[in-house]
Design a protein that fits this description.
It comes from Acidovorax delafieldii. The protein is an all-alpha fold and 292 residues long. 82% of the residues lie in helices and 0% in strands.
Amino acid sequence: MPAVSRLRTTLCIAALALAGALLAGCSTVRLAYNQVPHLAYWQLNRYLDLSDAQTERVRGDLGELHRWHRDTMLPQHAELLQRVQQQLPATITAEQACRIYEEARAQLDKVLAQAEPKVVWLASQLTEAQIRNLERKQADSNADWKSEWLDPPPDKLRERRFKDLSSRLETFYGPLDEPQKAVLRVFVAQSAFDPQRTYAERVRRQKDLVQVLRSIQADRSNTAQARTLMLGFLDRVVTSPDGAYQRYAQALVAEGCEGFARLHNAMTPAHRLRAAQSLKGYEQDFLLLAAR
């Protein structure tokens, strides 16, 4: 959904990679789905420089998570998409858009819950050298993020957001005409998105994660404590301890729901038909993958 940011944390990459496959093109889903465990491992290894022993366990855990996702979640994704298709020919309200978002979010939460024991195990195995490597990668990633979102002047940033959102919408609806582009430009111009505030929360989460990992490392044999610490971190990712950021995040979700409804309602019948056909393709891909 446009303007709704998805959760990304380093040690949840395995679970998020599985969910991320849902956003690719239909044919890409079928081609890429079986590669998700490999891609998730590659990303984890890039951040953590896994040892041989860790690699063996992580690859096994990712394969197990992938099989569970295929058997359990793909049919649920398909069922949600089927229901969304039925709404697309008509106009929708912001409340309907938010219900779709919340259902998709609930499905992602199930994936994260299934991944949690595997994440806790890996966190308890990390060395100080690996945590330092994570910090270096975080710094590199932050430099890239700042160059993309903090350094450009406001007009360039708005144009970039317009192009990004246009591309996402056209994936589903097909080429946008001027009336739809006009609605999108108003949405971008009025958006509450604040790169400075978003960046500050990004850095807070990263520091929080590093602190949690070092606390776990200090008593790595205490599995119960490791789980408590990691679950606490994940809770703080979902709900920031910064009350002002909580309100900002909630405003972005509400804005995204309202904006999506306005954009959808500005689409022509042909656009809406194209979107329904796109989701039908997702649905069929998910069911074919689940049946294998």
